[in-house]
Amino acid sequence: MDTSKLPKFKYHPNVYDCGVVEFSKGTCNCCGKEVDAYVQTMYTEEDIDCICMDCVATGKAAEKFDGSFIQEADDIDNDEASKELFCRTPGYISWQGENWAACCNDYCEYIGTVGTKELEELGIADELFEVDGSIDGWEDARKYLVKDGNLCGYLFRCLHCGKYHLRVDAD
Question: Nearest-5° angle of CA 77, CA 71, CA 91?
Answer without folding.
Answer: 100
